[in-house]
Amino acid sequence: MSFHQRIIGIFLILFMTFSTIGCSPKALLSPKPYKETQFLMDTVIEIAAYGSNSEAAVKAAFGEFKRIQTLSDRYNPDSQVSQINQMAGISPVKVSPDMIKMINDSIDISKKTDGAFDISIGALTELWGIGHKGDFVPTQEEIDKVLPLVDYRMIKVDSNNETVYLPKAGMKLDLGGVAKDYALNKAVEILKAHGIKSALVNAGGDIQVIGTKPDGTPWRIGVQDPRNSEGVIAKIQLNQWNTLQTSGDYQRYFIKNGVRYAHILNPKTGRQPTELASVTLVYKDTDIYNAGDVASSGFLVLGLEKGMAALTQFPGVEAIFVTTDGKIVVTPGLKDKVEL
Q1: What is the DSSP letter of 172?
Q2: Lower Cβ count inside 10 Å, N or C end of the chain?
């Protein structure tokens, strides 16, 4: 099965979960949403919004995903992140306020996760090329050659002049762990600006909702079983949170000689983390966060014990950890609020 087929399969399971969990006779009489699906930012994105202005709102929200993709796509040589990478070791690059915000947010996450999340990992992700190089596995020598180029502390951001500079030739930024959630937050802002009071935005399993369902009941979300594309390991009702963010070793990977190689890499070792299969973060972004101020992929790298400890740096964020041997651990704030 190809990477895109796996992503679409994941999306379909998630959407079926959204559509069927908690369905009631009252819900069947609710107004129909305007729904649209597009493949953007290397994943399937669906927006479902309710209201008289829903179609225009959804199209404008997709415009935000496209705008952020244009800035952050490292495979597009004309994007701002590509320009930063091309000028590594040469000169600073003038960028947009959105790029400054994404990079500054990322550096803040790096500090709070002891470098487990690091957008300067671009040279390493390019070396592995998960999803682009088949079942290629680099040698330790190749990894060791690239690791000195990975260190978020070397990224130079001049917020006043809106420039970004990578001081070492060969350094590369990869905003894959932050850009989608930043775009998700921007899209939700657009929906709200259009007067939408009930909506669900699903960006490849990263979800943000507005209000409740039209019938007044809270949104209920299913969290995918990382080892069963048709299974759900947890159900959570978003009555006090509005955002759910998941990273896992099942989203983009290949298996070679019995070993699973996923796209999420440890910036310090250059290899895949092996303790956790998935991490789901749950929080209310309007209280203390904008999407992008926390990154689930960093917690996948940290592992269970260090990940639980690092959550103290992110007040208000709860988590569901699933280990590679199938153990499910939830943070205290989710106990009695998650159906496992």
Answers
A1: B
A2: N
Q: What would the DSSP string read from start to end of 309-339?
A: HHGGGSTT-EEEEEETTS-EEE-GGGTTTEE
Euclidean distance between the first and the last CA atom of the chain, given in angstroms as a whole number: 28
- CATH number belonging to domain 61-187+220-340: 3.10.520.10
Is this prediction's pTM over 0.85?
Answer: yes
Task: For 153-202, write each residue's pLDDT tens digit.
Answer: 999 999 999 999 999 999 999 999 999 999 999 999 999 999 999 999 99
Return the pLDDT at 16.
37
> For residue 190, how far is the Cα from the chain centroid?
19
Strands (E), the chain: 34-40, 43-50, 93-94, 156-158, 163-165, 198-203, 206-210, 219-225, 228-238, 243-248, 253-256, 259-262, 276-283, 318-323, 328-330, 338-339
Residue closest to 181 by CA, chosen among 196, 164, 202, 198: 202
Two structure tokens written together for 329 = 């651990």
Strand intervals (E) in 211-310:
219-225, 228-238, 243-248, 253-256, 259-262, 276-283
Long-range contacts for 139-147 (Cβ within 8 Å, ≥24 apart)? 143/270, 143/271, 144/270, 146/270, 147/268, 147/270
Question: Could you give the maximum distance between any two Cα atoms of the chain, in Å?
Answer: 63
The β-bridge partners of 172 are 121
pLDDT tens-digit readout, 25-40: 554 456 789 999 999 9
Report strand pairing: 198-203 vs 156-158: unpaired
Q: Is the pLDDT of residue 98 over 70?
A: yes
What CA–CA distances, in Å, run from 243 to 61, 70, 194, 203, 290?
Answer: 17, 24, 20, 11, 10
